[in-house]
Amino acid sequence: MEIHIKLPANEKVIQPSIDFVYRWSIECGLSEEEAAEFATAFDELITDIVLFAYPERGEFSITLKDFLSRLEIIVYELGEPFDPERHRYSAKKALSEGDFEGAGFEVIKKLSDNFIFLYKGREGKEFRIVKNIKHPHITHIYSEKELKKEPKKAVSYQISPVTENDAEDIAKLIYRSYGYTYPKEDMYYPDRIIKALKEGKKFGVIVRTDRREAVGYFAVIISTDSNIGEVGEVVVSPDHRGKGIMKMMMKALIDMVKAKGLLGLFGEAVTVHTISQKVNAKYGFKSTALIVGFFPFAKYKGFKHGQQRISVVIDFLPLVERKEVSLYIPQKYKNLIKEIYKNLGITVRNIPVKKIHLKEKSFFKVNINYQFETAVIVIFSYGKDFEDRIRNKLMSFEKKGLKGVYIDLPLDKPFTKKAVQILRKYGFFFAGVMPLFHKERDFLRMQKIYQHIDFKYINTFSDMAQKLKKFVKRDAKEVGVL
């Protein structure tokens, strides 16, 4: 959930804003002490902005983000230029000279779990304060012996919708099946699972044996910016694989999704093995993209694979019929994109570009996943500043040490044909099509990676996924990545 607030740079807004952040923090899961620390850090930041950033009237904006594992406050302002690196706090100067310059930022760092400053030139300054929510890990609730105990073989299995009461069993099931290697860390924290279910961020099914022991779990995560869902969390207990549990869960999930009126489902099927891809294919999912190095390296029990970042195949299941779409398809990728759509049962009409009218500024959204060390940029509209802003973003990402950057380009905008040429100059290569992924619109994904990926460890199942693998590898070589 996100809350957006725009405020005047006036001293009268400071205390009400601090009070709101304190109450919001408690509501989102912080203790009273942690909420007080977070609110104090916020107090230091906006007081500095109100008192020193604007010599005259001005305004600043605040975004509050509530994640399962952390809270973030992002403050944007267009006040006077300021470089915190030139105003570092010195305890020695404070004691000997009474010089407390930079002390406010030092307080913010001590009271938060992460404090990030970004100077964006003409776009102003961005401050990001992060506070982690301390939930108990499943290994703090149960002993290692209890967690590793495998349910006995079953005579029969029962499937039911997931409820908040299933959270601990799901976390135990994840740990038993993956150890510490499951890429979605929130699944080891029962409280975070409960929170996601309460807030309607996901729904799913759980499979139990005739002894009521949990052996299967499968959930759909609802997209935050489009009416689609991701079959994004799935696990079957090791000794109960090969019993048809995955298929049972998939069928039940698809029925639930249709009842909720979603337009489509997608899966990020890891390429360490082809099991998930095979299940997806059985239920009508079609491969549309190969995302290289999307997740950090994780060891999957029972599978031999190279020690490199994990790639995923995007499999998509349309739940509404679309017979034809009109898109601006880049010439270099025209044939493959048309084939991807044909595989989805959709005919593509490639719109010729006559004239392009660009606004001054591009409009896009950036999502940085610090856990996965990746960034996804979604372009909604193009401006004359497109190349400059992408170049600046890449410089910023490299400083942060990100391992992969992925850019979604709208296929209903004519400048996408030109944007592909620009991005290839910066080492981006083809990933595939992301159908209905943002605002119910189709996007072309381009990707750039900063670590070597050996394609021989990327396993694909469907004919289309195999074509994508060959094409993506060739395109990566052409831009000098491999």
UniProtKB/TrEMBL annotation:
Q: Which SUPFAM superfamilies does this chain map to?
A: Acyl-CoA N-acyltransferases (Nat) (SSF55729)
Q: Gene3D superfamilies, from UniProt?
A: 3.40.630.30, Histidine kinase-like ATPase, C-terminal domain
The record's annotation in InterPro entries points to: Acyl_CoA_acyltransferase, GNAT_dom, HATPase_C_sf, HATPase_dom
Segments forming domain N-acetyltransferase: 157-320
Instruction: Name the Pfam families for this protein.
Output: Acetyltransf_1 (PF00583), HATPase_c_2 (PF13581)
Superkingdom of the organism of origin: Bacteria
Coiled-coil zones: none
This protein is called GNAT family N-acetyltransferase
Q: Source organism lineage?
A: Bacteria, Pseudomonadati, Aquificota, Aquificia, Aquificales
